[in-house]
UniProtKB/TrEMBL annotation:
Organism: marine sediment metagenome
One Gene Ontology term, aspect cellular component: cytoplasmic side of plasma membrane
InterPro entries membership: P-loop_NTPase (IPR027417), ParA/MinD_ATPase (IPR050625)
GO molecular function: ATP binding; ATP hydrolysis activity
UniProt keyword annotations, A-Z: ATP-binding, Nucleotide-binding
GO biological process: negative regulation of cell division
Protein name listed in UniProt: CobQ/CobB/MinD/ParA nucleotide binding domain-containing protein
Amino acid sequence: GTVRGGGLGCACPENAFLKALLGHLILERREIVILDMEAGIEHLGRGTARGVDKMIIVVEPGTRSIETASRIKHLAEDIGIKDMAIVGNKVRHNSDKEFLRAHMPDFDFLGFIRYDEKILEADLSNISPLESNTELMGEMEQIAEKMVAGKP
């Protein structure tokens, strides 16, 4: 089936547990929780992201990725998430940044992560791509600084 609205799907025991745990941490205790959710929209249909303060959507320069980001935005709004931002990923040229900005005018961008073969090599070697990639570390630090400062 397809995800028709935010928070309307999946009643499996694992999802019920995850929703209850996150609801306790985020809504009751006001803890800082960072969720690295799977790509796509399923977690929004299940409502597991309900209650988050900010959603960061990672998008690649391409039509399908942009369409998915737009769908994520609408489903997130369905479950009460209003603060969203974009991180452009696998950006090869400035034209990729321009493409994303032109096709996503309603989104705020936290930053961009360039495409780098070293990231793939690190994954194949089962090591963190941040260990030896100072350029990537700099990009990630800039994004983190914007998040902490509440920008965009």
